[in-house]
Amino acid sequence: MEPHTPDSEIRPPLIVPRPEHTLSRKNVSVEALKVLYRLHHAGYKAYLVGGSVRDLLLGKQPKDFDIATDARPGEIRKLFRNSRIIGRRFRLVQVFFRGGKIVEVSTFRCRSEFDDTSETPVDARHNTFGTPAEDAQRRDLTINGLFYNIADFSLVDYVGGLEDLRRGIIRVIGDPAVRFVRDPMRMLRVLRHAARTGFAIEPRAWEELTAKPHLIRLCAPARIRDELLRDFKSGAARPFFELMFKSGLFYAILPHWQGRLGEQGEKRLLDLFSRIDLLTRHERPVSETLFWAALLIPFLEKEVMPENLKDVREFFREKGREALGPIEFPRQRGDEVAQTLALAVTIASFLKEERPIPARTTRLSAFPEAYRLYQLTEAPEEELLQIFSDAEVQLPPAAVRRRRPRRRRFKKKGRRLPRPQ
After folding, report:
1. What is the Cβ-side half-sphere exposure of residue 335, based on CA atoms within 13 angstroms?
2. Chain centre distance of CA 131
3. Which of 88, 105, 317, 380 is most deeply buried (CB count within 10 A of its CB)?
4. CA 381, CA 362: separation in Å to the nearest integer?
5. Catalytic amino acids?
6. For residue 293, which of 243, 351, 235, 333 has the smallest C-alpha distance?
7. What is the mean pLDDT of residues 141-168?
8. Structural domain boundaries in the chain
9. pLDDT of residue 311
10. Coil, helix or strand for 153?
């Protein structure tokens, strides 16, 4: 396979007219169509871009629709009164609609100073806006570099993304060795889209990824944490973690887990997120706290825990900091996860010994999440969808030890003395 054309020699686009592709406007949100048509009627280019085009061509319904145009942010803002400009270095416009719906519109960008191959530094102030071809070249993967032109309903492909979609290949735009060094987060995105689509990763990209997983540590820890959370919620977390283990990225991000999980621990983590994927795909509520607690379970299972609930909570807090410290886990979220884990252990000890849970325990604020965590790990998989379909936690009547009502004390009635005059 020949390498992709460098940025300086951008090839003419492949234009696929409407009768020759399957993307239909009826699958595009009404809000996105309104934005596309208003830009088009105002004389600007208006393209549907990125993951929404990819998903529509794969027969999936996108969650978000992003739009790119040659209009500048100020010009976009004048067309849409219900909008605002956000961002510093790369400004884009958010257009607001009823029901909390938001459509993001960006101006075509040219090559970033981080992607410049020349020795002369590029001034970002003069390197923000560009052409559709340059905008396509700066994207991460070929399957994410496709455009849908609202002017004639055609597909525009500058990077060979349509062919890669047809063949089921995840390919980095440009040289993977260069692209991964300039932004190591692209390695995570390669695994993400391979997990979600089931596509094969192009050999050159896989070789670079497995040879340099340590590069991911150059990214901001908070950015890595936020990217991982997206994969927890994707419905394809299990295949994502499988690729993370195979590539070495998992232990590059979380070095304290190296040699601790083993084959059994990795299988345990994969099984837990297989259950979470089942719930996510069927739109069952799974909180962020539950995601992180499930991730920590294989790390903590071999530990000898204290008996007291307060000591167990502090134990989980310290171990959670050790496990998730490299990604700068927020303290408040860490406390919530520790409380949930500690209470889940307490619940499990009561139920496994067939003792009812004290009523005071069920009134704790962390109890609903802790009980859901217990159900996630212990309930039969075929019952999970029914269990998580209820908005509130449903406990069996026999599982709770009711508190005895207090005896009412009556004061002896006595004769009142008359008030002094």
Report:
1. 3
2. 30
3. 105
4. 24
5. 64, 66, 140
6. 333
7. 95
8. 6-167, 275-388
9. 78
10. coil
